[in-house]
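Running this now, will post back.
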Amino acid sequence: MTIPQIQALQTRLGVTPDGFFGPISIAACQAHLRALMPSPNPWPAQDEASLRAFYGAAGDESQLTDLDVAGLGVCYEGTPVHTVRCHHRVAASLGRVLTNISKSPFAEVLRNYDGCYCNRAMRLGTAPSLHARGAAIDINDAENGNLVHWPAVAVQPLEFMEFFAREGWLSAGAFWGRDGAHSQATR
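Update: finished.
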C-alpha cells in the first residue's frame, strides 16, 4: 500500500495516521477484526491438538466437500472455478464469505483464487498447513504473498479481511503481518 493508503487505514482504525504501520496500528487492526468475530468463536485454537480434535488428521480427504462457487467470479489462473474443495465444517461459512465478497466492491479479488485444500506442510515449517485440512484459503497471492509484509507492501484491503472476521476466520496479513492472501478458520 502507499503511505496515503496506510494513513487512511490508520484513520479508519482510530490511530494516528503517520503512515507507519507499527505496534499501535497492528494492535488496533487486530482489535478491530476481533470485535467483528462471533462470540464464542466457532473455530479451534491453532495448536495441533485442537486442530486434530476439530478437523481430524491433516490430509484426510474424507473430511472434504465441494463448495459450489459457480457464479461468484472465482477464477484460478484466469479460468472460472465452479467448486472449492474444503473441509465440510468450514463449507457453509466459506460460502457466505465468498458470496459476500462477490457482492461487494472488492469482488474483483476473487479472480485471483489461489487454492484451499492442499495436503502440505506450512511454508518454512514442518507442521501441517491448515490447507492440509481444507480450512484455509489463499486469494490474490501474487500481490499478498507469504513473505510480503502487510500493509507496507501487500495490498489486501482491510474490508476483505472483515468479511472473514465476521465468520470468525483469521486473516494472516492482519494477525501475522505477512501472507495477506491467507485466511484460515481458527481463532
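The two ends are 26 Å apart (CA to CA). More later if anyone needs it.
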